[in-house]
């Protein structure tokens, strides 16, 4: 269970407190504030603070004092224009701060997005909990034979059980040794900052992660993609639902132009124009490598 009864009680207490404010609020985001959305077996994502809404994006683009005289559909059209033409600064006017509980190996992927502010739970000062990510059977897959970064067929039967047994036993044994090494219960022991080095990469950590909407969209474009590793994609999928409620017009444009759209090279555009003109274009006559051509065909087929 990702959250203890005490933690759930604390969240309910936070959500019960309301204050009057002159700042802009997003009704959709208010419904998510402080709630923990469960991810994987012990993880979660929860919003602890945010700034701005769709109106803040429009206001920044127009540098206006307020809502102005434009109609909502014009605001949505402007947001779509900004997204379509890769404008970034208006989207940077919105920010979100998340509390995330995630496996360490997922955190190592996540931290590659260096445009956020991060503060992680410190295993130098505190003792990590005995919580490890163990994949569900349907996500236990062999190495892909065609993609060095991907997964192949799902393991089944005795082989799947063998792998799960190894994962559980290794994680448990490492944590047992971690506890045995710690300076606690009257023994001299090892400092926490050293004892932690023996812990496996599937142990859970936590952090606060604050990012603006422009860079959050970049994170989601990569991590909510079907080709992303499942474990980080599970977090991105939850975040997509939160963002869709927070800034619906901006998220709709993002979904259309970034998630559902495609970018083509100059060679790709030339091939499309030739195809429209009725010419039969092959990889050999496209000027593209075999890899580029496969990706080009995949984008056309959708």
Topology readout:
Layout: H1 5-16, H2 27-30, E1 36-39, E2 43-51, H3 54-62, H4 72-84, E3 95-103, H5 104-110, E4 117-120, E5 141-143, E6 151-154, H6 157-181, H7 192-195, E7 204-212, H8 213-223, H9 230-246, H10 248-259, H11 266-276, H12 290-301
Antiparallel strand pairs: 1-2, 2-3, 3-7, 4-7, 5-6
Helix pairs in contact: 3-4, 4-10, 9-10
Task: Describe what this molecule looks like in 3D.
It catalyses: dUMP + (6R)-5,10-methylene-5,6,7,8-tetrahydrofolate + NADPH + H(+) = dTMP + (6S)-5,6,7,8-tetrahydrofolate + NADP(+). Its cofactor is FAD. Homotetramer. DUMP binds at residues 109-112, 120-124, 196, 223. Pathway: Pyrimidine metabolism; dTTP biosynthesis. The chain has 302 residues and is of the alpha+beta class. The protein has three domains: 5-133 and 202-259, Gyrase A, domain 2; 136-201; 266-301, no CATH class. It is 45% helix and 14% strand. It has twelve helices and seven strands. It has helices at 5-16, 27-30, 54-62, 72-84, 104-110, 157-181, 192-195, 213-223, 230-246, 248-259, 266-276, 290-301; strands spanning 36-39, 43-51, 95-103, 117-120, 141-143, 151-154, 204-212. A five-stranded antiparallel β-sheet has the order 1-2-3-7-4. The chain has a two-stranded antiparallel ribbon with strand order 5-6. Strand 5 and strand 6 form a beta hairpin. Helix 4 (72-84) packs parallel to helix 10. The longest helix is centred in the middle third of the chain and has 25 residues, at 157-181. The protein starts with a helix and ends with a helix. The relative contact order is 0.14.
């Amino acid at each position: 269970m990702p959250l203890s009864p005490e933690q759930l009680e604390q969240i309910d207490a936070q959500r019960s407190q309301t204050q009057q404010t002159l700042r802009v609020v997003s009704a959709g985001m208010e419904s998510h504030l402080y709630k923990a959305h469960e991810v994987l077996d012990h993880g979660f994502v929860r919003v602890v603070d945010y700034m701005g809404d769709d109106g803040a994006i429009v206001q920044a683009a127009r540098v206006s004092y307020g809502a102005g005289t434009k109609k909502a559909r014009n605001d949505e059209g402007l947001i779509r224009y900004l997204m379509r033409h890769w404008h970034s600064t208006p989207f940077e006017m919105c920010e979100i701060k998340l509390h995330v509980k995630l496996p360490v190996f997922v955190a190592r992927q996540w931290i590659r997005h260096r445009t956020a502010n991060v503060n992680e739970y410190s295993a130098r000062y505190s003792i990590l909990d005995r919580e490890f990510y163990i994949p569900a059977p349907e996500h236990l897959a062999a190495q892909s034979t065609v993609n060095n970064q991907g997964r192949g067929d799902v393991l089944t039967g005795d082989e799947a059980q063998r792998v799960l047994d190894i994962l559980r036993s290794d994680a448990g044994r490492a944590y047992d040794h971690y506890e045995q090494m710690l300076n606690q219960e009257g023994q001299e022991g090892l400092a926490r900052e050293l004892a932690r080095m023996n812990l496996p990469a599937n142990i859970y950590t936590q952090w606060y992660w604050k990012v603006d909407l422009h860079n959050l969209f970049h994170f989601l474009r990569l991590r909510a993609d079907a080709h992303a590793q499942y474990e980080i994609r599970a977090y991105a999928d939850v975040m997509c639902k939160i963002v869709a409620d927070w800034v619906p017009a901006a998220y709709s444009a993002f979904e259309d132009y970034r998630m559902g759209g495609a970018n083509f090279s100059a060679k790709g555009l030339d091939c499309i124009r030739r195809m429209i003109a009725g010419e039969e274009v092959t990889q050999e006559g496209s000027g593209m490598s075999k890899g580029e051509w496969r990706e080009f065909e995949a984008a056309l087929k959708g």
